[in-house]
Amino acid sequence: MPSYSTNPSIGIDFGTTNSSIALARANGAVELVSFPTATAVTESFRSVLYLEQRKQAGRTQIKGFTGPSAIEHYLDAEHKGRLIQSLKSYLTSRTLTGTEVFGRRYTIEDLISRILSDLRANAERQFGEPILRATVGRPVRFVGAETDEDDAFAVDRLRKAFLHAGFEAVQFEMEPIAAAYAYESTLDHDELILIGDFGGGTSDFSLLHVGPGVRSRGRTAKDLLGNSGLGLAGDSFDARIVRKLVSPALGSNSFERSYALASDRPASIIPAAPAWIYANLERWHYLSFLKTRNVAEILKSARARAQEPEKIEALINLIEEDLGYQLHQAVQRLKIELSHHDSAEFWFRDGSMDIVATVRRADFEGWIADELRSIERCVDALLTSSNIKPGEVDRVFLTGGTSFVPAVRKIFEARFTAARVRTGNEFTSVARGLALRAAETSA
Ligand SMILES: Nc1ncnc2c1ncn2[C@@H]1O[C@H](COP(=O)(O)OP(=O)(O)OP(=O)(O)O)[C@@H](O)[C@H]1O
Ligand SMILES: [Mg+2]
């Protein structure tokens, strides 16, 4: 009989873009789950689900794949099924509670639970024991949340998805607090720290006292000075890139032909395709929902009336071929390049579409200026409400994929000086900290 520890200390970070799982050992060491891909092994599992229809023995079945295998199956498929990204961002929506795929209705909880089941199976395989409980991360503010009730609604749905995936019980912890515990494990003294966790969907902040002294005397409510957060991060930056570089090539600034032909131009210009279609194009998690008969009909008639029908044709192709993933990749490539260089090339080619542009980092920073200001305001509000001056913060720890963006780092360097800003474990610090938290609460 294998000997199971009754309750392994498991932390699960179900992220908007990437997920990871960690186990904290009794000696404080943390082990991350590795996920195999076709070419390598990774500790961050893409939070994507791919559903496709297959004919087997005369019967039609819907097969689901998650993480790296979702992407591999999607790319290999001749007839594309549905690739669904950024599912965590739907959790606050009371109107979009599910979707129909190949004639079958799925709730958002069902879709998320498919990803969670596979994460759990990978963890059980690696750790060799059943995983029925976990400490799970949640953002301070979910994408789309305006009130605490909206957040509670999202947490409740996330809990349901975990239970659906076979977990018996989950406890939630704020994602930036989890990142603080991961950072704390590197400390040999106590500090007042500000955490900034910048992911795909949300930016989250916590201000708290951590360190070996705090841990050994026992944490108290006073150690946490405050949390704040906002439902924008990497996906919102991507939306700006799509708006500036991609949508115009797909007709967002094009008009109906009657406008171009009329000698006495009408006072109001009629756009060829409705603006809401481009708004959905900017959001990864809405893009795959554009593949409906209704949208196809709207676009077909827009193409017939458009001054630049080839642009609408390219948009139809993008939606029909479900090229959201390729578009996401092109945008990510640009963003990552711009994190390292002053300028980078954007290219997105497919069939009739060929978009190439050189983008300077300064341009990109201009496009995301509103988002950067919102982040600044959120950080400043946390300091003010906690009655802490920037000079009193010993260290700032920035984590999450979007913390690579130089303009995001600059916000903290300007307030706290570069010498006090630390970065690291961008994709795994939340899961590590959640596992440490699980160990602490079960001790
Ligand atoms: N080098 C980079 N420069 C800029 N952005 C990056 C870089 N690497 C990753 N990103 C962005 O980081 C985001 C993903 O980060 P991360 O995995 O931390 O998010 P997440 O945990 O899934 O999301 P959330 O915490 O919001 O639920 C994506 O928007 C991705 O494009
Ligand atoms: Mg995250």
Structural key phrases:
443 residues; alpha+beta; Nucleotidyltransferase, domain 5; six-stranded mixed beta sheet; five-stranded mixed beta sheet; 20 strands; globular; binds adenosine-5'-triphosphate; binds magnesium ion
**Helix-strand category:** alpha+beta
The CATH class designation of the domain at 9-190 and 425-442 is Alpha Beta
- The count of strands amounts to 20
Rg from Cα: 23 Å
Shape: globular
Low-confidence stretches: none
What is the mean pLDDT?
A: 92
CATH architecture of the domain at 9-190 and 425-442: 2-Layer Sandwich
Annotated CATH homologous superfamily of the domain at 9-190 and 425-442: ATPase, nucleotide binding domain
**Small molecules bound:** adenosine-5'-triphosphate, magnesium ion
Proportion of strand residues: 15-25%
Sheet with most strands: 6 strands, mixed
CATH fold-level name of the domain at 9-190 and 425-442: Nucleotidyltransferase, domain 5
- Span from first to last CA? 25 Å
Helical amount among residues, as a percent range? 40-55%
Number of helices: 16
